[in-house]
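Two records follow; treat each independently.
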Amino acid sequence: MNDLRIFQALLRNELRVFVRKVFNTLHPGTLYLDNWHVEAMCYALEQAILGNDSNRLLITVPPRHLKSICASVALSAWIMGRDPSHEILVASYGADLAVKHARDFRTVVEAGWYKGIFPWANLPPKKNTETEYVNAHGGHRKAVSLGGSVTGFGAGTIIIDDMMKAQDAHSQTERERVKNYYDETLYSRLNSKTNGKIIAIQQRIHEDDLPGYLLEKDGYNHLNLPSIADEVTDIQLYNGVVHRREIGDILFEASEPKDALDKMRLEIGAYAFSAQYLQNPTPLDGARIRWEEVATYSHEPKLFNYQMVVQSWDTAMTSEQTSDYSVCATWGFREGFWDLIDIYRHRLDFGPLKQKVVSLGKKYRADKIIIERAGTGFPLIQELNADGYTNVRAITPKQDKVVRFEAQAAKLMSGKYRIPQEAAFLTEFKRELSAFPSSKYDDQVDAISQFLYWSGLARNRDPNSVDQKTGRRLKIKRRSIPRRKDQRVKKRR
């Protein structure tokens, strides 16, 4: 096989190679700056399309990082090249942008190199307009903008590329319009709700934007690519290669180095920068927690190393998709520090909620389970106590949740409370606490502030405290030997 055939095979089979060729076709004479993040996007897109991963993919990435070339242009041309009968719908926020991407797509499929690797493209298309391309085999690519009609058009793949302008981010009406368009128009166009693909690629602009909405839905894989990493992340690339991002790592150093990002932050403001570049849309009056001042731990949180384990529950009313979450924050005391071990966050009806309180109590061998005496907390505490769970404690809130959090937030930065350096729950946990009180949800906030209040009470302040008369430690637990199964829940017999 000669070099040309090898290259053509790579173009057909690897989206990352195809993207580079597309860029050079659309921008001849412009230097292509290769970077691992493009490979990461291509790999995630390819896996979703080939069915090797979830049929739903969300990529959040800053502006000017080749997202539109990768998804709206190259991906749609690559899909159609491999399957000329495939129907593709590409949605953007404005008609001008949708038309531009459609024009770039036509430039690619009409290029000589494209026809060389996908011979069907030599046949004249059945339809070739500003917004719609229909090839000789019946495959479609239709471009649509927000609010546009797609009646009568079905799709095997829907690609959503920036469905909202950044300047509309603070309009609740526009945010709801975008979400309704997704639910009522775009989603209904899938030929198969089971096997159809939905790819969304965009920058974050608000906590309640479309990406935030999609993240609440089950089944969406999320590739998050902030300009500056705020946590350690392993990102899958081709051929089994994994790229590790350390805290502070710059996403695209060759294009946007740290000094350029610092200048951008000053020019557009901290809020817009946090949303669009850090993919962390913290509301304007948030940021009560300075995460760089919060202590962290790197050890594996093994239960037998902790002297005491306490769980703090904030309970919600129902399992409805529009309701709040029930949250359990599990903390362990070790050598003078409280470590956040786990965050459980889910929507549950009362029966499953009660079962979960019991099962998580068993799993983590909780010495104390504290629940707010309000809402579903009232009957939950009563039933658990009636069932003999003596480690359940009721907390009665005396102020509103904003005042409570304000009073406790500084403790998180005292050095005595530690969060893990790496954890699956960490990103959403930080986002919610940073955004409060303007965040969409505040259940994690309530669970955390409740625990911080409880741990600050005189009787709970130090599990290592010593009785002055007897010299015995008051609350210390010996966990070097795991408890027997019949000892793991404090229940009266």
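The next record belongs to a different protein.
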Amino acid sequence: MSRLQYVFSEALRNMGRNALVVLGAVLAVFISLFLVFGTLMFGQIASENAAQWSDDVRVEAFLSDELRNIDQLQNEIAQWSDVDEVIYISKPEAVENAKEIFADNQAVLDLIAEDPAFIPASLRIRPSDLQAYDGIATRLEATPGVLEVISAGAAVNQLIALRDGLQVFSWALAIALGAAAIALIANTIHMAVYARREEIEIMKLVGASNWYVRVPFLLEGMLEGLIGALVAVAVGLGAYRLGFDQIQGSSRLIDLTLSADFLLQRSILIVLFGVVVGAVGSAISLTVHRYIRT
């Protein structure tokens, strides 16, 4: 039997001897890395949507029919330091826009046809950054001739805040569970070494080096981390695919699309991290275990 075959066969045999403990360690790795993987995907989706919304969302100021100096008001707003662009939407343009938006709602279309004059003209303002939405809306509300101000900036800011808060919570939980996974893997290796303590002593008596004895146990921990990571990636991708199919087709507000490159890179990262978790757990156990330490 070659040395490589020996290492793998011993690692698999050790895992079989302590199947329940190994299962617990794999489960801990899976849960922690699934949370990390999910956080990475959600964070990317939230970032891309927030960036897209911030480019598309405008502050809309609906104007009174009595307002006569619209050009002057438009120029004044355009001079604000936190405004990039101001576009005037006339009443006829507003009516056509409303017809496009409510094309599937016959009741609204009938209302527009009956009295198109009720749809006001407006100024559509594009802020220079996300933080400017609230300030611009507040000033517009105090401007004479402005009937109502609508802004989705608050929703964008709430999405960013939700993303940041969820990322902090998920990472903290994942780190805690990762530490638990390392401890479980270390305990698994400790039990495997103890179960083979007599065999290890005999191997040392016939000249086996510490590394020759240690490598199968080190590989066992890495395999446990690898299995947990692979399951986390598989379940994470499956959950993403299911969520994409369920939500994307019924919602135009949220784009769940993630690039294949992003998913591949993060999947590889998760798998490598799982192997590292397993290696660290094994190394900790082998460093302190008295049967292998010397």
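Discussion point: Residues 3-53+157-288 form one domain. How would you locate this feature using only the token line?
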